[in-house]
Design a protein that fits this description.
Number of helices: 15
Distance between the termini: 61 Å
Number of domains: 3
Shape: globular
Radius of gyration: 25 Å
Low-confidence stretches: 1-31
Mean pLDDT: 92
Strand content: 15-25%
Structural class: alpha+beta
C-alpha cells in the first residue's frame, strides 16, 4: 500500500462506528466481556502514546513488555470494528538477521522482500477488552516469501494516551509453502471515529531451525470503521472459543500443586538450550501448566495467542488420526491399496502398498535404508518446493525404486505421508461425494470443532492449485491450548468425544503401543513407529518399573516434541535447535504419578 491512497476520516465513518457499537448494546465502553479494572495510570517507558502519534520508531528491538497489557490498564473507552490498513510495508522497517542456513538473503536472487512485511489490510472486531481478526489460519498474498497468521489480542485505556484506546494484536509470519513460524505483535492507538496512530510492530522469536531474524518498525496506518457482517455471531463464537480453553496455570504452579516437583525440568529438559525453546507445557488432571513464551527481547506477552507449527507432528495428528477416524466409520480402510486410489502411482511400485504401510513408513520403496538419508534436503526438493498437487505426487510416486517387500523395512519419507493423504482423500470422496474434504470433514468437522480447537488450529497448508490437497504430513498450525486439547483427546481420552468413540480403538492402541500384537516398524534400537506415531523404550530409566516401558510421542522437525505419557499426562515443547531431549521431564512426571506400565508390551 502507498500513503497516497490513505482513506479519509469522514462523518459517515464516525456515524457507522457509533452504530456498530450501539447495535449490540456495547455503548462507549464496550460490553463487559473481560472487564479491566485498572485506573489507567500506567508508568510507560516504551511505545509511549506521543511516540506512536508523532514520534520516531525505536532504533532497535525493545523488550516485549512494551507491547503487553499493563496491570494498571483501564477498560477501553473506544470500540474497534473495521479494517486496519498499513502503509510502506515493502520498504519501511528494520531487519536484523540471526541465522540464515540457506543464504536466503545473500544469494543475489532475493529482492529484500524477505526483510519486510507483506501488505496488511484486515478486519478486526472488539468485544470488551479483546480484539480478534476475522481471518484466521495462514493468509496467502502476493508476497513471495511470507504469509500472515493473525490471532486475538487485547484493547485497553491508559491515561497518557490522550483519549485514544490502545490495541495490541499478536501475529506471525509463516514461510510460504512451508511451516516456519515467526511470532510478533503490533500495537497502535485508535478512536471510534477512525482516528489512528502509526502502528509499531516487532518480531523477535520463531520456531524455525534454519532462518531466524528480528523485524521491527513503525508504519503509517488507517482505520476504517465498518459494520461487520454477522458480527454478533462472530463475537459470540470468539467468546465461546476463549471460554472453552483448558484451565491454564503457570508451569511454576506444578511445584505447589504437586509438592516435590521441580517444574524447571519441564522448561528445558536435558541439554536443550532454553533460548531456543519457544514454549513448553504439561497437562495433568484437567489443568494446562504452560511455561513462558521466550523471545530474544523478553517474554512474549500473549502466550495464549502464540502460533506454533506442526512439521511432522501432522503425520500423527492429521494422517494417523484421519486413518483412525475413517477406520472407525469404514472398517478396512487401513488395508486399501495405493494404486486403487492414487492414479499417479499406478505406473510405479505401488500395487501392493497399503495405507497401513504408508503410515508405518514401510512401503519397500526407497533409495537408502540408512536412518533419515532419504529425507535429507537435497533429496526432497521435488516434494517440498513444488506448489502443485501434481508436482508433489510426481515426486512422491516416482522418486524411489522398489528395494523390499512392503512392511519389512522402515524408511522415513514425508512423501509417503503425502500419498497417504491423497489416498484417504480419494477414499472419502468415494464414500461421501466429490465435495468431501479429508481435513475439513474428517478432522475439523468430526473432531477439532467439537473438541474446541481454535480457528487457528482448524487450518492446514494445501497445494496452491485447484486440487487444494492438504499436505497431511506437515503444514498444521496451533495455539498452545490446541496442542493440550489434541494431546488429551488422543492419549488421555483414548479418542472419545462427547461419550462416543471417534477413533478406531484398535488402531489408536497400536499407535500408542498398547497392543503387543501390532507394534509397527523399527526405525532404531528401542524405537518404534506405528500409524505415524513414535515410541521409545525407556527400560531401566524409571525407578520402580520393571520390563519394557514404551512411551509414545510425536516429533516435528527442528525440535518439536509432544510426549503422551501413560500416567494420563501430556508433556510438550516447541524448540528449534534440532534437539529432542525429554527423558528428564519424563522422570519428573513419573515422580508426580507412576509411569510404570504393568501390561505386557
Amino acid at each position: 500500500m502507498t500513503a497516497t491512497i490513505k482513506a479519509t476520516k469522514s462523518l459517515g465513518l464516525a456515524l457507522m462506528a457509533l452504530w456498530a457499537g450501539a447495535a449490540y448494546g456495547w455503548g462507549n465502553a464496550g460490553n463487559e466481556y473481560a472487564q479491566l479494572t485498572g485506573d489507567g495510570k500506567v508508568s510507560r517507558m516504551l511505545l509511549r502514546g506521543e511516540a506512536l502519534l508523532t514520534g520516531d520508531g525505536p532504533s532497535s528491538p525493545i523488550n516485549f513488555s512494551g507491547y503487553a497489557l499493563p496491570a494498571a490498564a483501564a477498560h477501553p473507552q473506544q470500540v474497534f470494528s473495521g479494517t486496519l490498513t498499513l502503509y510502506g510495508e515493502a520498504h519501511s522497517g528494520n531487519f536484523n538477521e540471526i541465522k540464515d542456513t540457506y543464504n536466503y538473503t545473500h544469494t543475489g536472487e532475493d529482492d529484500n522482500s524477505r526483510k519486510h512485511l507483506p501488505e496488511f489490510a484486515f478486519q478486526f472486531l472488539q468485544t470488551g477488552s479483546h480484539i480478534f481478526p476475522l481471518e484466521r489460519g495462514s493468509i496467502a498474498s502476493s508476497h513471495p516469501h511470507w504469509e500472515y497468521v493473525l490471532t486475538p489480542g487485547r484493547v485497553w485505556q491508559e491515561v497518557g494516551d490522550k483519549g485514544y484506546s490502545r490495541a495490541a494484536i499478536p501475529f506471525a509470519l509463516q514461510q510460504r509453502n512451508a511451516n516456519c513460524i515467526h511470532n510478533g505483535v503490533l500495537s497502535f492507538l485508535f478512536k471510534g471515529d477512525g482516528s489512528v496512530s502509526r502502528v509499531a510492530y516487532q518480531i523477535s522469536s520463531e520456531t524455525c531451525l534454519y532462518f531466524k531474524a528480528d523485524w521491527w518498525g513503525l508504519l503509517d496506518a488507517t482505520y476504517t470503521p465498518q459494520a461487520i457482517a454477522n458480527q454478533k455471531q462472530r463475537i459470540q463464537d470468539y467468546q465461546a472459543e476463549v471460554a472453552a480453553r483448558m484451565p491454564i496455570k503457570a508451569l511454576s504452579a506444578l511445584s505447589a500443586d504437586y509438592p516435590g516437583t521441580d517444574y524447571t525440568v519441564f522448561q528445558s529438559p536435558g541439554s536443550t538450550d532454553p533460548s531456543h525453546v519457544t514454549t513448553t507445557g504439561f497437562v495433568i488432571d484437567g489443568n494446562h501448566y504452560r511455561g513462558d513464551c521466550v523471545t530474544r527481547h523478553g517474554n512474549y506477552p500473549y502466550c495464549e495467542s502464540l502460533v506454533l507449527p506442526s512439521y511432522s507432528i501432522a503425520k500423527s495428528v492429521f494422517a494417523g488420526v484421519a486413518m483412525m477416524r475413517l477406520q472407525q466409520q469404514y472398517p478396512g480402510v487401513r488395508d486399501t491399496v495405493v494404486s486403487d486410489h492414487v492414479p499417479a502411482c499406478r505406473s510405479g511400485n505401488w500395487g501392493d502398498v497399503t495405507l497401513d504401510n504408508l503410515l508405518d513408513m514401510a512401503t519397500g520403496n526407497y533409495d537408502s535404508a540408512t536412518y533419515m538419508v532419504d529425507e535429507a534436503a537435497e533429496h526432497t526438493d521435488g516434494l517440498f518446493l513444488s506448489d502443485s498437487h501434481s508436482g508433489k505426487l510426481s515426486y512422491s510416486c516416482g522418486h524411489y525404486p522398489r528395494k523390499d517387500s512392503p512392511g519389512s523395512q522402515w524408511v522415513y519419507h514425508t512423501s509417503d505421508t503425502y500419498i497417504a493423504g491423497t489416498l484417504m482423500a480419494d477414499y472419502l470422496r468415494g464414500e461421501r461425494g466429490s465435495d468431501a474434504d479429508l481435513f475439513g470433514d474428517t478432522i475439523v468437522a468430526d473432531l477439532w470443532g467439537p473438541l474446541g480447537v481454535s480457528p487457528t488450529g482448524q487450518y492446514t497448508r494445501r497445494t496452491f492449485d485447484a486440487a487444494a490437497q492438504p499436505f497431511t504430513g506437515w503444514g498444521l498450525i496451533w495455539l498452545p491450548d490446541d496442542v493440550a486439547k489434541i494431546g488429551r483427546f488422543v492419549s488421555i481420552d483414548k479418542g472419545r468425544l462427547g461419550g462416543q468413540q471417534k477413533l478406531n480403538l484398535g488402531e489408536l492402541n497400536a499407535a500408542l503401543q498398547r497392543n503387543p500384537m501390532d507394534t509397527g516398524t523399527v526405525p532404531l534400537a528401542d524405537y518404534r513407529y506405528n500409524n505415524g506415531f513414535w515410541a521409545h523404550n525407556v527400560v531401566g530409566k524409571l525407578s520402580g518399573c520393571r520390563g519394557n516401558q514404551w512411551i509414545p510421542f510425536l516429533s516435528g522437525f527442528g525440535g518439536i516434541t509432544v510426549v503422551l505419557l501413560p500416567n494420563d499426562s501430556i508433556y510438550y515443547y516447541f524448540s528449534d535447535n534440532d534437539t529432542y531431549y525429554w527423558l528428564e521431564a519424563l522422570q519428573e512426571a513419573h515422580g508426580i504419578r507412576s509411569l510404570c506400565q504393568q501390561a505386557p508390551r
